[in-house]
Amino acid sequence: MKTLTAGESLDIEVGSGLAPYVEATALRLGYAEQLFSVQTDGSRFRVTARAPFDREAIERRIAHALYREKIRVESAPLRARFLELLSQR
Amino acid sequence: MIPLRFRAELPPIEEPLVVRLRDRPTDDFHDDREAALIGIAEGWREYDFNGFSLRIEAEPGQSLDGDVVLAFPGRPIVHRLIRARSHHNTFLVTERCDQLCLMCSQPPKQVHLDLFAQFGQAALLAPVGATIGISGGEPLLFKEQIFALIGNTLSVRPDLRFHVLTNAQHFDSEDGPFLHGRARDRVLWGIPLYAPDAADHDAIVVKDGAFARLFQSVATLAKAGAQIELRTVVTRRNAALLPRLARLIATELPFCTSWALMQLEPIGFGRMNWDTLFHDNSVDFGPVARALNIALARDIDVALYNFPLCTIPEEYRTYAPSTISDWKQKYLETCQGCSLKTRCGGFFEWYDPDRGFARVGLE
Amino acid sequence: MNVWPLRFTDVGRDALLFCDEAGGFFRSDDAFLERYANDILTEADRDFLLAGGHSFEEEGDRHHVGFAARWAKRQFVPGPLEYIILVPTLRCDLACRYCQVSRVNANARGFDWNEATLNAVLALIDSLTSERIKIEFQGGEPLLRLDLLSRVRDFCRRRFRSAEFVVCTNLQKVSEEAWAFLAAADTFVSTSFDGDALTHTRQRTLDPAQTATFLSNLERAMTTLGTGKVSALPTIDPDNPPAPDAIIAGFARLGLRSIYLRPVNYHGFARKRFGQGDQQLWNAYYDRFIDALIAYNAHAAEPMEEFYFTHCLRRIFRAGHHGHVDMRNPNILGADYLVIDHDGTLYPTDEARMMTRIGQMDLSIGSVFGGLDQEKLQILNANSDNNFHEDCGQCVFQPFCGVDVIDDLSRYGRIDLSRHETAFCRRHTALFTRIFELIYTDDAATRRSLAAWLGVPAFDPALAPVHK
Fold it and tell me: Which residue, A61, B29, B53, C207, shows the most beta carbons closer than 10 Å to its own?
C-alpha cells in the first residue's frame, strides 16, 4: 500500500463509462475535499495530497465521488417525476 | 356475561321496532322513538311506548337507561343494539363475507338479513360522542348502504364516530369523495392484515389476490387521508412472520393510525382450529416482542389486544390495554387478588384454560 | 424496477451507509455500490431494495405509495402560531460569565414591559387561531416580574382550550408567591444547572453560598413540583468542561433523566476568538459524554439521555418527528413560534434576538404594535429547506437534518457558504455519524441505551439493516 506524502501527485484514469461525470466531480471535489486537491483534463484526474494520504483511499474517494455524480444525473428524471406527482396531490 | 338480549312482551308492531329506553322522560323526549319506564315488578320492567305497553325482563341491577333496543314482530325478544354505558357497541350488519379467514370468530353465512334502516334509526339515538362499531361478515359487501348509513348519521349527529371492520377488498378510487368528506375524521377503518407477503396472507384469509386488493384499497384510503387501523390476529400460522410484517407496515403503510396485534378468540373457526392456530405467547413471546419493537421504533402506534397481562413480559405490558369487550369478558380463579386485574382485559368468556396459555398468573 | 436515488457515505473499510430521500437506510459495501451505480443489480439486490422501501415496480404500487408517504411526513409543515417565547424583563439577578448580551442588572430601568407592551402582547395572543397555546417565559429573570407572568397566564387560561407555561428561571431567589405560581398543574420550570456545584459557581453564581441556595431551590422544585415538571440544562464550556460522569451523576441524583447539553454560546468578538477549534473540542466532548451515558445506562435502573442526541436519533427512525424548533426541514421561521422581546419587538428565534441586540445584524421581524414584517420573513424563509441544496443533495443525512439560517447568518453573516464549512453542518455531520455508528454497534450496552432513547423495550437488530 503506497502512501502519498504532502504535495505528491497521482494520476487516476477514469473508465469511459464515467467520463461524462469527470468535470462535475472535479468541480465538487475542488471545494468539498479537504485532504487533497484535484485537477482534470476531462478524462483523468491529477490528485495532489495536502497531507500524507493512502493511495488506495484516494482512489476509493474519487470513485465514490464519480458514482455520486453518475447517480445524481441518472436519477434526476425519476426524482423530478416524483416531485411533480407530489405537487399534483 | 352482560346480556345482549332480553325476553320481552311487545306492543303490536308490523315492522321491526327500534326504540330507546328511558328510566324517566327527559325534556327532549321523542314519543315516536323512546319508551319511558313506568314500573318494575317481579323482574319485569314496564315501559310506556306511545300509549302501548313494552315489557322487558331484566335483572334488577341492570341499567337500561339510554339503551337502544331492536325488536321484530311476533318474536318476544329485544336485542340491545346500543348499550348507553358501554364503549363496545357494534352493529353486525351482515354475516356474508368474501373471505374465509382460518381464525374467523364470526364464520360467514349465506343468508343476509337487511336491517340497514333499523341500524340507521339506532345510530341517531346513540349517546353523545359515542363510537359505533360496524362489523360482519364483510360490511362493505353492502358498500352503498354502509356509506349511506355513515353519511346520513354524521350529517345529523356529527358528534358520533364509527369503527368499521372491513377486509378492504372493496374500495375504489371513486370512493375518494366519501372518504375525504365528513367521514374522514369520524371513521376508523379496521383492516386485517396477516402476513407480509401475498402467499401467506391469501392462504390465511383463503382468498386469492386478497393481499394485492387490500393494498389497492388502502392506497385509496391513504390518499383520502382516512384513518386506518391494521389488525393482525397472531396465530401459529403467522407468528414467525410478524417481525417482517412490522417492517412492511412501517415501510409501506406509514400513514396507518395504529396497528393491533390480537390474540386468538376461541369462538367460531378460532375455536374449531384452536389446536393448530393458538400461539401461546406465555411460552414464546419472541416474535411478538420483535414486531412491537420494530414498529414502535418507527413510530407505528402498536398495541396488543386480548393479551392477558400475566402472559406477557413486564416491560411489554404497557402496550396491552384492556380490550376484551365487557359482555364477553371473564377472569379466572387465578385472577382473584391479582394486582393487575383492574388494568387487565382478562380472558374471553369462551376461553378454555385446559387448552390455553401454559403460564397464567403473576409470579 | 426503479430504485429511488441512494446517497451513500464511507463508514469504514469496505463499508458504506446508503440512504434514500425518505430516510430509508442500510449498510452495504463497495461491490453493491458498483452494481447499483452501473445498473447490474442481482436478484438478491432487487429483493432487498424492494422490501426496504428503496424501490418500486410502478407508480402507485404499495412501494411507491409508502415511499411518498414517508417522504411527505419528513417535510415539516408548520401549524398555526401556538408557541410564544416572552421576555417580560431583561433584568436578572445573576451575571453569568457568558451572558453579557441577554441581560441587564436587576436594578436597571426601562428593560421591562410597560402597560402598553403588555396589552399589545395580550392582543397579539388573543388574535391567534389555535385552540391551544404554549408560553415560555424567558429573560432576564422572569420571576422578577411575577405580576406580568400572572396576568399573561390568567389571560391565556381564559382564552384557550388548553394552555401550558414554562418559566425559564435561574431558581436563585424564589419567593413563596413564586413557588405558589410554579405549583400550578399547567406550569413547568426550566432552569440551568451546569452539572456540579463547582462548575455552576465558576460559570454562574461566582459564590458557593449562592450555588447552595440554587441547589436547595432545585431540590425543592424536584420534590414539591415533581420530576416531570422540572427540566435543567447544563451549559458547557468546551475549554473547561466538567467530567461527563459528574454531570450524569449530578442530574441522576436530582431525579432528572434528560440532559440537554449546550455549548457556551459565544457572540460577536468572543465567537470569532473561539470560533473553529471550538467545534472540534465540542464534538470530542460530546462523544465522550455519549460514551459515558451508555456506560451509565448499562447498569442503571433508570436510563439517562442527552436530549438532542435522542431527538436526532428519533428523527432517523420516525419520519414525522418535528418536535424541536432547532432541527426541522424546512425550518420555516415566524410561523408556529415566535419570540417577543422586552420592548415588544418580534424575533423568529432567541438567537436572532441576541444577534440583533449586539448590533451584528437586525433580525427582528416586526413588533407587537405593528405586526409581523412579512417581507423580511419571506427573505429569511427563501432558503429554509435542505431538499434542493447542492451539498445537502449528496449527503446521506439530509432527510434527518435541517437548516438554521439564523445560525449561518450569526456566524458568517451570509448563508451561501458551502455547507461543510458551516458549524451547523459540521456539528450535525459528526452527530449523525456517531448515531449511525451506534445503530450498527452490536453490543448489549449500546443497544440498551438506544432502546431507552427510542422509548422501546428493546432495540431490534432488524432496525439496522445490512445488505451484502
Answer: A61
Calculate the CA dihedral of residues C428, C431, C437, C442 and round it to 10 degrees. -140
Beta bridge partners of C210: none
B341 against C380, higher pLDDT: B341
CB–CB contact C2 A78 (8 Å): yes
Q: How confident is the model over C238-273, as pLDDT tens digits?
A: 888 999 999 999 999 999 999 999 888 766 545 554
- Rounded Cα gap, residues C19 and C458, in angstroms: 24
Element (H, E) at B163: strand B161-165
Which domains occur in chain A, in start order? 3-87 (3.30.1360)
Residue C83 banded pLDDT, cuts 50, 70, 90: very high
Residue C8 with chain A: CB contacts under 8 Å: 64, 68
For the stretch A38-80, pLDDT in tens is 888 888 899 888 888 888 888 899 999 999 999 999 999 999 9
Whether the complex's predicted ipTM surpasses the cut of 0.90: yes
Q: Check: CB of residue C459 under 8 Å from CB of residue C308.
A: no
DSSP string, B57-107: E--TT---TT-EEEE-TT--EEEEEE-TT-S-EEEE--S--S---TT-SS-
Residue A12's Cβ-side half-sphere holds a number of Cα atoms within 13 Å equal to 25
Closest by CA to C461, choosing from C445, C440, C435, C446, is: C440
Q: In Å, how far is A41's CA from the nearest CA of chain C?
A: 23
**Distance from the B226 Cα atom to the nearest Cα atom in chain C, whole angstroms:** 13
Chain C touched by B173 (CB under 8 Å)? no
The whole domain housing B35 covers 5-79
pLDDT at residue number B196:
98
Residue type, B188: L
Residues B15, B109, B306, CA angle at the centre, nearest 5°?
100
Question: Angle at Cα C15 formed by Cα C9 and Cα C19, nearest 5°?
Answer: 40
Do the Cβ atoms of C394 and A79 come within 8 Å?
A: no
CA distance to partner chain C, nearest, from residue B27 (Å): 30
Q: Is residue C92 part of a domain?
A: yes
How many structural domains compose chain C?
A: 2
Q: Which three cell numbers stand for residue B183?
A: 367521514
Domain boundary among C304, C336, C357: C357
Inside any domain, residue B84 = no
Mapped onto helix, strand or coil, the DSSP state of residue C372 is: strand
Provide CB contacts within 8 A for C221, sequence distance 6+.
Answer: C171, C182, C189, C191, C229, C230
Kindly list the residues from chain A whose CB atom is less than 8 angstroms away from the CB atom of residue C394. Answer: 28, 68, 72
Contact predicate A62/A11, CB 8 Å: no
Domain span at C274: 83-357
Asked if B18 and B158 sit in the same domain, the reply is: no
C466 touches chain B (CB under 8 A): no
| Number of separate domains in chain B | 2
